[in-house]
Amino acid sequence: MRKSISIIVAMSMVLSLCSCGRAEVKTTTAGTAAETKTETEAAVQEKASETAVPDVPAVESGLPEGPVEIQMWTDFNVSEEILQGVIDRFEEAYKNQGYTVVLDKFAGSDRATKLSLAKESKTLPALFLSAWFTSADEVHQGNILDIDEIAQTAKSDIYPSAYDATCINGKSYMIGLYQSYFGLLYNADYFKAAGLEEFVPEDELEIAAWKLSDFQEKILPALAEQFKGTEKYPLGLFAASVQADTHMMNWLSMYGGQMWKDGKSNSGSDENVIKALNTMKAWTDAAYTNTDVATKDGTEVMPDFQNQLCAISHGQYTNYVATRGKIDSGEIGKFDVRLASVPVEDNGTDRNIMASYIYGACIMNNGKEDEIAVAKEFLRWLLQDQESLTAINTAGTPCFQSIAKAAEAEHPIYASYEKMSENLWDFTGNVPGFVETRKDLFPAIQSVYSGEKTAADALAEYSEKANRVIDEYAQNSLVLNP
Q1: Please, are residues 208 and 341 in contact by the beta-carbon 8 Å criterion?
Q2: What is the rounded distance in angstroms from the CA atom of residue 155 to the CA atom of residue 6?
Q3: Alpha helix locations (H) across 51-110?
Q4: With DSSP H G I counted as helix, E B as strand and the rest as coil, what are the percentages for the chain, rounded to 5?
Q5: How do residues 127-157 score in pLDDT, each as one tens digit?
Q6: Global pTM value
Q7: Which of 28, 143, 444, 459 is the S-S candidate for 268 at Cβ 3.0 to 4.6 Å?
Q8: Which residues contact 254 (CB under 8 A, 6 or more apart)?
């Protein structure tokens, strides 16, 4: 098992390292602390350099003559080095056609602003690599093109859940590249110190599945007692912004409530969602969470967890890998980081959930036919270039069954996630305007924590506002109303 962990950590180091890239690479993300390149990374680079560039078929009829330069925008948690390696291979394959790709990698928190400015100035990129939940609204607005013809060629290899999630009105708008199950990370050392060994699986890669009753009556109280008189806290909660909002939505579903129903927000009408928000507030009042939930940002909880200030945080595979990488490099103190699902008690039945994120590639409707044609050719090429496709997939669990199968020996954690596949839920409801609805959820949560409103009133107001957004997006959707 330690060998398996070592392999995962070695890959995390490759993913977390950012190279300077080529001169034309543009980045707006603050760089991570410089780290010494590992032998594993060098081996990966050597292998890539030894791999022959695939033969390029003759330029198909309809493809533009070069030179053509396209922009690739992404907020992927994939290193620039890996992405630039993929771009280099594409450019080498199409050097006779003169196709080039310029990478612009930025933080997810900058995404909305960048897209808004680009739409106003008519400077959208041709390629957009991001999470599906952030891309779906752009589909309804006509900013992302249907790529059903391309997606069909890979449909048999893509997991049905990943393929179906990226379709609207029966058409595919994204090639899913990797997925990440969003649940919990926890510090197993703190659990053991608090006498909670029974809730820590012997297998380090097993995703813990606790009962909600145990979580509330045993786990949180024991951790709170252990941290009494210190700045540490058991569970991280936040409501200052929409970043990592899935964590709060997971907890709002802990009694089996439905946040979305029949394509609308249902939070204000579902007693179990209301009960969940009241429970979250009670946890804070009992000192089971950080005290500053109303002003805490989701991006602040993960650093707290990594610096061992809290025992349980939100998290997905990329957070897990990054945390283990920082431990291995000595950037943070050593501790036993584990994965867990979110406990749910639904009408007397215990179950566990995780939210599903699909990350993939889209073609943006930037009005430039030559760029769109080259971007589509990039996707066709990517689906055929196994090395590039595999390199990107290592940021999460693969969307491609063939890649998951080929990598299962190196990444045994994939099997752990596979066991959770039946417990995934769509935290967006796939409703039009989902991203915009989030801006009203967190003020609602803040109002409960500040004592300004009851959970019932706050969620009813949120649902009313959210449904106005959904109705407006549905009426104006260029996909739903062709």
Answers
A1: yes
A2: 33
A3: 80-93
A4: 45, 20, 35
A5: 999 999 889 989 999 999 999 999 999 999 9
A6: 0.77
A7: 459
A8: 212, 276, 279, 342, 343, 344, 345
